[in-house]
Amino acid sequence: MSSVKLLCLFDVDGTLTKPRNVIQTELFDFLQNQVKPLCTLGLVGGSDLKKIDEQMNGDVLNNFDYVYPENGLIQFKNGKEIGRQSIQKFLGEDVLQTLINYVLKYLSNITLPVKRGTFVEFRAGMLNISPIGRSCSQEERDAFEKYDKEHNVRKSMIEDLKRQFPDIGMTYSIGGQISFDAFPNGWDKTYCLKHLENEGFDEIHFFGDKTDKGGNDYEIFNDSRVIGHRVVGPHDTKKQLEQMFNL
């Protein structure tokens, strides 16, 4: 495979780390010391740069050649920002506020085992909406994930938003344990691929865990421009890389 110019592009949560956790030293060292000499490394995640940087042990822009926070709405190459887009530019403030107000009203009318704070997080390319609130503890995260699997809190809310706002051109995607993303159509993780088309790669291999329909890796995993690898956690990512590169 050495004569082929490869990019290995990774989702973060559930792929390189446990959700919202820091990457294990063993996997980080494996990527940097064994995988990086064989291919180019890239990241694409729904979170902002600060969160991704924390999860990658800091200095993420120097350890990964391409970094695409917020689904690639902000783009970094070789440590430098090369572009960005924003949801407020796309939607306009009036529509944006109407959507946020509706979300907060909806959440005020549902009862969960616990509720905490930061129910809507504004990001460059999306709204991240969390029924329990992003300031919950890890234990509360785990409990909500189980509760949501049984009661479909996020799925039901998404169906309601689709009914209420059929014409604003938004996609809703469940990712991680406690939230879902709302972003303009086409602003899923495939958005980053337009910035890679002229980079001269023979193959782009994408690794992600939320690859089923409705998951936030689904679109890029199934995109014809990439070779998709479905993983079930960081240990599986390492195992698939070992097999791919005969390590």
Automatic annotation (TrEMBL):
Alpha-D-mannose 1-phosphate binds at R20, R123, R134, R141, S179, D181. Keywords: Cytoplasm, Isomerase, Magnesium, Metal-binding. GO terms for molecular function: metal ion binding; phosphomannomutase activity. GO terms for cellular component: cytosol. Pathway: Nucleotide-sugar biosynthesis; GDP-alpha-D-mannose biosynthesis; alpha-D-mannose 1-phosphate from D-fructose 6-phosphate: step 2/2. It holds the Pfam family PMM. This is Phosphomannomutase. It comes from Phaedon cochleariae (Mustard beetle). The lineage of its organism: Eukaryota, Metazoa, Ecdysozoa, Arthropoda, Hexapoda.
